[in-house]
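Bump. Still looking for GNAT family N-acetyltransferase structure tokens.
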Amino acid sequence: MTELGPVAWPPAPIKTERLVLREPEARDRTAIIELFTSPEVGTYIGGPRPRDEFERALPAVPRRRPGLFVADLDESMIGIVDIKRRDADRPGRVRPDGGEVELGYMFLPEAWGHGYAAEACAAALDWVADALPREPVVLTTQTANDRSMRLAAKLGFTEVARFEEYDAEQWFGVWIPITLSG
Ligand SMILES: CC(C)(COP(=O)(O)OP(=O)(O)OC[C@H]1O[C@@H](n2cnc3c(N)ncnc32)[C@H](O)[C@@H]1OP(=O)(O)O)[C@@H](O)C(=O)NCCC(=O)NCCS
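Sorry for the wait, here they are.
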């Protein structure tokens, strides 16, 4: 995977009204397993991971990398917000050479319907605007994923294209940071 870019990492934990965005830690292991093996979470993202295999492969301290945030509510992980470079050979482009910064998100079903994902993603987009000035951020989601489509619109993403990938119609949108100068 291509590096995100020259970002200072890890940042100090990012506090929002109700959440903290921070790096994954050993204590998040159970929640990470729940997240990746949940059939509900996996519905529009390729299905759940087989639990035994996933647990065996997951290191004691979950993998860390720049742009990978855990969303923490009252000292417990409720989801993941992932900022990374998109593979240049994927369909959908806003830069001629591809490799755009892409936003991804997955939250535990019990945390849906409270605005937590929106709160966490908005804070992650603020972090991108600061860490990688002027970078547009893209997002891909199945058009059938109503919750994700509503979240993308709420965050300010606008449609660039729709295409077929993984046997489903995908919505490809972009978010442009607002800059006050030049
Ligand atoms: C996509 C996903 C993150 C959306 O989660 P979500 O909780 O619906 O998203 P939001 O944080 O925007 O919350 C919005 C809901 O919270 C409600 N809400 C309740 N209290 C709220 C508050 N204080 N502030 C804002 N919204 C609030 C809103 O009314 C809205 O409910 P509705 O959709 O029933 O109208 C979640 O469904 C998920 O993890 N899905 C599985 C992974 C996945 O498909 N990811 C997409 C990859 S591209």
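The mean pLDDT is 95.

Edit: fixed formatting.
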